């Protein structure tokens, strides 16, 4: 993806796009992917970086949603299981089959979870990832060496998917770009263009890097901005009622030794009624999540002290080695764009995660809700409204079968896996220039060639883009990312033609962000 080339397309004011998408998280990218699969011309605009918000801060699970099954949301679970199975086929370099173990401390729990998970298996049909089964106490301890053993009767194993969320978002963007879509990060929408009947005909936008302003024409405009959807709705109609209730979920990242195996731990009941996961991911352990109502949507939300304490205390009840604040390598927070409940006091865990597509009087199409796993189906359901708005024929969706950028049947080993078929080209850069073989940080396998690749091929324009979302160091070890920032900034400055003043500003900006990922012991 070349940002300058895509900016040149944006500068062509004579062009009318079939679809303009506002938002470059999982929802907006799902729309762009589906639209391009139907032969439509697509432009997507993201005010920050792709997946900068919620879409890079998930629990890293591609899952049907065991707890949604317990709540009786069968339709959502069926849809998610189908999408989960297909995504593992379409992006084998970014997804994998992850076994989970629920530790069992009562025979009632054994019966309850065994039956529930057999139903979960059955619902997945041919796309099932593995059979759930009860395992003995000794096997549970062998597979989860650090699990609390007092009163342990065994465990129930089941299978779900795991993924790298920010890298998957990037792969979807690259897939759409490869197919002819125009995607741009750091371009914000400043206003909506309307005709004399009040129908939307395009957008006023601004490049946040050089402050250049553009206008573009589009037959259909889609608001896929997640927790910021209300801002676009109010841009369309200042009297629009608020639709979104942000709900914060945090995750703590610690060393893998706190769990001890390759299996993930699922804690089915916490004292606030949610489930808690401890998932091995990129050599660390990701533990979460919480569900805390927040009134204001922020691009860089921060974990509350009570959330950090809740996750640590809950995890401690299941681990032999009790994690403390000092053990946390990074903490990250994301905001779920839940539908604002009509009744006061409704619990967020009870609000459906199903997505909704709403068409305003102006023909603004808004996609809200949903979950990462169903991003593609959310996009398909949104693009289905194209015919209704434009009165033009719409080709059937082809996105279900689309292999994502980097797809390969020979997934590279180790940290190279997330690049898929691109890994070879990055390794070639390092072969041609020995200085690019240097590690970015001694505790991580990533090398400087990956920074060059991110700037040249993956539209990374800020140090944070590289250290948070192209390479996941910021959310794996925030201090390591801070220690690596100067090295990354210097390489990026060479690639992007920037001066020492740019490096200084980038380091200052990155420090402000990275400090929010550090826990004050």
Summarize the structure.
By secondary structure, the chain is of the alpha+beta class.
Walkthrough of the structure:
- The strands form two sheets. Strands 3, 4, 5, 6, 11, 12, 13, 14, 15 and 16 form a ten-stranded mixed β-sheet that branches.
- The chain has helices spanning 3-11, 26-37, 66-70, 74-90, 107-124, 137-143, 165-178, 229-236, 305-316, 375-383, 386-390, 423-432, 448-457, 463-470, 473-476, 478-496, 500-514; strands at 16-22, 42-45, 61-62, 95-104, 133-135, 154-163, 182-184, 187-194, 200-207, 213-223, 244-255, 264-267, 276-281, 284-288, 292-293, 330-339, 355-359, 365-369.
- The protein has 521 residues and is α+β, with helices and mostly antiparallel strands.
- The radius of gyration is 23 Å and the shape is globular.
- The mean pLDDT is 94.
- The chain contains 17 helices and 18 strands.
- Helix 12 (423-432) packs across helix 13 (448-457) and helix 14 (463-470) packs across helix 16.
- Strand 8 (187-194) and strand 9 form a beta hairpin.
- The longest helix is centred in the C-terminal third of the chain and has 19 residues, at 478-496.
- It comes from Algoriphagus marincola.
- InterPro entries: DAO_C, DAO_C_sf, FAD-dep_OxRdtase, FAD/NAD-bd_sf, G3P_DH_FAD-dep.
- Keywords: FAD, Flavoprotein, Glycerol metabolism, Oxidoreductase.
- This is Glycerol-3-phosphate dehydrogenase/oxidase.
- Belongs to the FAD-dependent glycerol-3-phosphate dehydrogenase family.
Chain-averaged pLDDT: 94
Number of beta-strand segments: 18
Rg computed from alpha carbons, rounded to a whole number of angstroms = 23 Å
Shape: globular
Q: Which percent range fits the helix content?
A: 25-40%
User: Total number of helical segments?
Assistant: 17
Q: Helix- and strand-based class? A: alpha+beta
State the end-to-end distance. 41 Å
Report on the biggest sheet. Answer: 10 strands, mixed
User: How much of the residues is beta strand, in percent?
Assistant: 15-25%
User: Unreliable stretches, pLDDT < 50, 5 or more residues?
Assistant: none
